Amino acid sequence: MKQTSEPARPSPQPISHATTTGMTGGGFYNTNSAPQWSAIETVLPLIDEAAATLPIDGAGPIGLADYGCSEGRNSIAVMKHALPALLTRTPRPVQTIHSDLPTNDFSDLFQSLRPDGTTIFGSDRVFSSAIGGSMFDQLCPPESLHLATTFNAIGFLSCRPVDRLPGYILPNGPSAVRANGYVADEDRDTFSELAKHDVARFLRVRSRELVKGGKLLMEVFGSKGAARTSDGLYDLLNDAVLDFVEAGEISREVYDRYYQPVYMRDLDELTGPVFNEAYGAAGLFTLDRAMDYEIAVPFVEQFKVDGDLERYARDYVNFFRAFTEAVLRAALPADVGREDLLNRIYARAEDLLKADTGLYPFRYAAVAMLLTRKE
Fold it and tell me: At how many degrees (to 10) do helices 44-53 and 34-42 cross?
């Protein structure tokens, strides 16, 4: 195995109610998150609906918070969309809050919020801040928020409910096209239940932060009929990792314990905890809107037009590297060769995709709901 002269990176301290240290930083996530923005664009009308009906009576700032902001490009774009309508409704100041894990790379976010020393939002009534913490914990004072949003972050589970997932690297299992692994029904059920409990916990802590009548918009990658956002890309990552298992560079023990703590919900799994008393969040919110949908993936559509295989493989792999790398790094032995091995795994994924794109077709499905905090 090729060794590098770089020292091994120290492992970040575990964070309560988190299973990743965050997205890949240094501008990488911002550069490779266009599909996520396409999914967000579909639900912007729900942002418009929320901004037009938020309770604005009283004094003090109007609070807008986004949970899972990563490097900030999409989070800032959502705030820029919501603010104009809100600012015309009230003379009150507005505070935007961008939150992610303490281990998140906030550098690009901070630079983007005040690029020339003034707010990116174009109004001296808008003030911005960032909070490091798990979205499954209360992060803002009681009744301080009027609108809370989260895009995709709820897809990352609050804990690892099983120690091993030996047949595949994702709880939902492989695609029907590739069928390159398995997940036991018992394990699948365990993850489905945790995903619902996570939604309920998120609802409970947001209900404390939101004013009565405040709005909560939740959107996350998931499944809609035959379309699952996990299909294709996790097949590709799984195949790449297995190549290194077969070559003896990754032990079977490491592979059996490694999985991405991500779950692809369908719409019922997202909305169920709003009503089902078994999860401890029923009665906190009314459900205004719920939807599942599929978006066109920019790099897939571009490949259909230009057939540029090199660009397609690079963009496809960089897209999922941005949100899988931290977990994969933590699963590998912490030695001086880990960074080199990571790079070779994702390079192998590019080679596999270029060798047969038909094995890894990718579709992006999402589910979303708009809620109102009950009086």
Answer: 50
Please tell me the distance from the alpha carbon of residue 212 to that of residue 285, in angstroms, as a whole number: 10
What does the pLDDT look like over 252-284, one tens digit per residue?
Answer: 999 999 999 999 999 999 999 999 999 999 999
Beta strands 285-295; 210-221: pairing state: unpaired
**Strands 210-221 and 223-224, bridge-based pairing:** unpaired
Distance CA 89, CA 91 (A): 7
Nearest to 165 by CA among 296, 254, 78: 254
Q: What is the dihedral of CA 15, 25, 10, 195, to 10 degrees?
A: 30
**Which residues make Cβ contacts (< 8 Å) with residue 27, sequence separation at least 6?**
71, 108
**Closest residue by Cα to residue 344 from 70, 2, 90, 38:** 2
Burial of 305 (0-12, 13-18, 19+ CB in 10 A): exposed
Nearest to 328 by CA among 240, 263, 265: 240
C-alpha 255/C-alpha 196 separation (Å) is: 27
Distance from chain centroid for Cα 197: 17
Instruction: Quick: pLDDT tens for 207-219.
Output: 999 999 999 999 9
Question: Is the pTM for the entire model greater than 0.85?
Answer: yes
